[in-house]
Design brief:
four-stranded antiparallel β-sheet; 2 domains; eight-stranded mixed β-sheet; 384 residues; single chain; 13 helices; alpha/beta; disordered N terminus; 39% helix; Rossmann fold
Length: 384
């Protein structure tokens, strides 16, 4: 190194050789520092950029060195998506209340009480809509006035399959069909009991349901072979999530009744109305229809509970993984995407007067079972 960076030392006195050698070594170190520091500084700036490119491949325009795009973005107003005038961006969903208080009378033992689990309300809100409660035992003219304020309907889970509740669900279903036949795209989501009610209503057979052992059970969904999911609730599920639905327990089942694929297919009124999308198996390995969609109407029926993964915490078998939450979100998005196609444009004041925000939920999650929150409605008016 000294031959490159130090002067010729052959003419120097021997007594000064050692000091000159040590000074020369220091000079060498300084010179290398002078050369290497800028290189290190340069690499320290470039390496994170290179790592970002190779590890994620997701870079902002400025990170890609696309200065023209960056300059364009900074010098002009942002471009907002033009909304589709055919869609309604203030959708409202009507949720049919269920008899009781949702807690076997522990919260309210009024025989006129009915409830909606708050998880269904949150589910609708997660998709970007609001809720109007359809109180099943209020005067019929009031209930059907409310039905004119919504852009879709949701039937919840529960136990009631007879009496006034069944009659009201039947009338609402017929109204949904009528609206669609008259040109309004008016969706219906039917969950668990809701699916069972539709099975009974459409088949015109109140004894059509079969027993299954699927209470408090996490399960997978088995897609029907060669099924086309375009236009169904599963259309926008990422491929990886669709695969996980078949191999992992990402949905919650909580029912003792249902219908087998064979019985649905062999019941003409049902097979003409519904297409089976998925099946599942109960604790006895018996297969039942877990998701079905109407051939000609925006009606989707779930034997499972898409609302529970993200919004209920009591039952032990509810899946709460990130994938399970994504299932809830996609299911909610589909319902509200369908509701936005509705032609109904209800008066804003009437909507505000009837929204579920006019009621307060009751917290009941400390029991460690059942629902975490419920909306309870007491209806003492006589029906007309």
């Amino acid at each position: 190194m000294s031959s490159l960076f130090s002067s010729n030392t052959s003419s120097s006195p021997p007594s000064s050789a050692q000091p000159n050698d040590s000074v020369s070594a220091a000079d060498d170190d300084d010179m290398w520092n002078y050369l290497l520091v800028p290189i290190f500084l340069y690499l320290s700036k470039e390496l994170p950029f290179a790592e970002a490119q190779t590890s994620t491949g997701l870079l902002l325009p400025s990170q890609r060195g696309d200065t023209s795009s960056a300059d364009s973005l900074s010098s002009s107003s942002p471009s907002c998506t033009v909304l589709d005038p055919k869609l309604y961006y203030l959708p409202v969903i009507g949720i049919l209340t269920h008899p009781g208080d949702g807690a076997s009378g522990r919260l309210n033992n009024d025989t006129n009480a009915s409830y909606i689990a708050a998880s269904y309300v949150k589910f609708v809100e997660a998709g970007g809509a609001r809720v109007i409660p359809l109180i099943y035992n209020e005067p019929e003219e009031i209930l059907f006035e409310k039905l004119e304020l919504v852009n879709g309907v949701l039937f919840t889970g529960g136990w009631a399959k007879s009496g006034l509740y069944f009659e009201v669900a039947q009338k609402i279903f017929k109204k949904v069909i009528e609206k669609n036949d008259n040109g309004d795209h008016f969706p219906l989501y039917a969950t668990c009991l809701g699916f069972e009610l539709l099975t009974m209503i459409i088949s015109e057979d109140k004894n059509i349901l079969e027993p299954f052992a699927a209470s408090n059970q996490a399960s997978s969904l088995q897609f029907v072979q060669n099924i086309n999911i375009e236009g169904t609730v599963f259309q926008r599920f990422p491929p990886a999530l669709l695969q996980k639905l078949e191999t992992e327990c990402l949905v919650m089942q909580n029912h003792m009744w249902g219908i087998s694929p064979e019985k649905l297919k062999n019941t003409p009124k049902l097979s003409r109305f519904f297409e089976i999308l998925t099946t599942s198996r109960d604790e006895n390995n018996q297969a039942y229809v877990s998701t079905a969609q109407a051939h000609s109407y925006p009606i989707t029926a779930f034997q499972w509970h898409p609302e529970k993964n993200a919004f209920e915490w009591g039952p032990t078998m509810i899946p709460h993984s990130e994938d399970a939450i994504e299932v809830t979100q996609h299911a909610a998005n589909f319902l509200i995407r369908e509701a936005r196609k509705s032609l109904n444009r209800p008066p804003a004041r009437k909507v505000l007067d009837n929204l579920i925000y006019n009621y307060s939920p009751t917290y009941c999650g400390k029991a460690g079972r059942g629902f975490d929150e419920v909306y309870i409605f007491t209806q003492r008016q006589a029906r007309i």
